[in-house]
Amino acid sequence: METQNETAAPLSIVILGTCDTKLCELLFLRSQILSHAEDASITLIDVGRTPVSNPAISISQDDLLSNHASTSSSDLSTMPRSRVMQIMTEAATACLKHFYSKTPIHGVISIGGSGGTSLTSTALRRALPFLLPKLIVSTLASGDTSPFVGESDITLMYSIVDIAGSNSILNGVLENAAGGIVGMAHAFQKRQCPESRTHGGTTIQTAPKVKKLRIGITMFGVTTPCVDTIRQHLLTTLRLDSCEVYIFHATGHGGRAMERLISSSALDAIIDLTTSEIADEIVGGVMSAGPHRLKAALVARVPQIISVGACDMVNFGPWNTVPQRFVDSKRNLYEHNASVTLVRTNPEECKRIGEFIAEKVRDYCKRPELVQVILPTGGISPLSKRGEVYADEEADEALFGAIEDGLRGTGVEVVRDVREINDEGFGCELAERLVRLIEIAKRAGKEDHSF
Fold first, then answer.
1. pLDDT tens for residues 222-262?
2. By the 8 A CB rule, do 288 and 323 touch?
């Protein structure tokens, strides 16, 4: 049976919390973590409004502000709550960044209500990388969590009752949370040191992991068959056994997560098949990835294929949440499921989507030989194929034409492909095109050491 390496360093776990309002609960959480990992190094950071003194606090509020606040904050008690939140969030973010750069951290945990959850989740998103365990016990974990999680991998745990005082329910939640962060921290620590494992009391050296080519692909339910084809073609047919494929659900947060990974050099090539988040940004849907979509990969100069999958639709929630203007103008609405209602993009909107894509490529593409735009004219989703509910030749032509016009003379290849997006041949073509771009980047990289 494999056990933890006996020579592994103690776990390092950070606790963030407002000690002026939740000190007792934070200390209970700390004690429960130590009950699972008695030699753990625990750093308790006080992000409260009012200074508190306790020997268990590792970084006091005074220390936090004096060392990490960007502005004078000597009079927090007289400031509006919103301003205090801003100052403490900035200080907590800076503190975590500094701590992470100097000291190994294997996990971070926080507890809080609305204010504490907002503060700590922002700091965790801004300061710490993907895969480092981040757990927040919150009273808001069962509602709309998108403002807290965003594109990060923060884990939220509902507190059931308010985090106020001691009772069997809250204590049980905190006990579970302590076990959770210790388990995640152990897994993270083990992943950081894969070279040796202990088996039967003997330390076994293992070969270091081979670095794989990391490829990102954007997907929606309506483009899943194409993505499956691309992935299989990359992994099997082309025998790229040294690559990993990461699929990003184009729900707004998925696009942001992909672009954050690109910006942190965690992805090497992209097939941006499903750019529907741009449609939501242009038209006002609920799955926008923001106004900077596409920029990250272009700035990073990674090989990429861009397409227009699902740009025939804008996403909203249940049918009764669709803005009245779309109902009044008798737009083409389609109930994708009970939670998602689609609105067909019209010619004017499609033209703006195409202009958005062309503008981003034109403004930020520095390596046109590494970027191609492929347009599946047979249908940009199954719904817009000939004879289907979203078939609209005028709208599609507005989209394709705007991209072609906007990229004329840039050196970026724009190709019309008569197949529909989920045609198996189309998916294979995209995969093969990306491989050729990767080879171009590799040849150039041997000269400038950039790939």
1. 999 999 999 999 988 666 567 899 999 999 999 999 999 99
2. no
Tokens of 408: 């004329």
Q: Do the beta carbons of residue 334 and residue 425 sit within 8 Å?
A: no
Q: At what angle do helices 19-36 and 168-192 cross, to 10 degrees?
A: 60
CA dihedral 284, 430, 292, 97 (to 10 degrees): 120
Non-local (6+) Cβ contacts of 7 within 8 A are 196, 203
How many other CB atoms are there within 10 angstroms of residue 301's CB atom?
17
Distance CA 174, CA 178 (A): 6
The closest of 92, 27, 89 to 57, measured between CA atoms, is 27
Query: How many CB atoms sit inside 10 A of residue 170's CB?
Result: 20
DSSP string over 291-347: TTTTHHHHHHT--EEE--TTTTEEEESSGGGS-HHHHHTT--EEEEETTEEEEE--H
- Are 81 and 18 contacting, i.e. CB atoms less than 8 angstroms apart? no
**pLDDT surpassing 70 at residue 1:** no
Does residue 5 or residue 425 have the better pLDDT?
A: 425
Task: Check: pTM over 0.70? Answer yes or no.
Answer: yes
- For 16-62, the pLDDT digits (tens) are 999 999 999 999 999 999 999 999 999 999 999 999 999 999 999 99
Question: Which amino acid type is present at position 351?
Answer: K
**44 in Cβ contact with 56 (< 8 Å):** yes
Sheet of 2-3, strand order: 2-3, 196-199, 202-205
The length of the chain, given as a count of residues: 451
The DSSP element (H or E) to which 202 belongs, if any, is strand 202-205
- Residue 46 to residue 18: CA distance in whole angstroms: 6
CA–CA gap between residue 40 and residue 34 (Å, rounded): 6
Distance (Å, whole) CA 12 – CA 381: 48
